[in-house]
Amino acid sequence: MDFLIVTACIFTMLKFLAHFKKTTNNQLDQKEPKKEDTVVLLEEIRDLLKKIDKVN
Q1: Which residues contact 2 (CB under 8 A, 6 or more apart)?
Q2: Residue 5: per-residue pLDDT
Q3: Whole-prediction pTM value?
Q4: How far is the C-alpha of 43 from the C-alpha of 52, rounded, in Å?
């Protein structure tokens, strides 16, 4: 009888951990990393310089 209780508890814990891991991985996949302001400005400057080079 004790064996059945212990196996049921372990099974429930493993199911819970698997579900928790799956939900946290899905949440991490959905979030996009936010670019810093300096990175955005540098990318804009790079794009502007490319446009100037194409004109000349």
Answers
A1: none
A2: 93
A3: 0.44
A4: 14
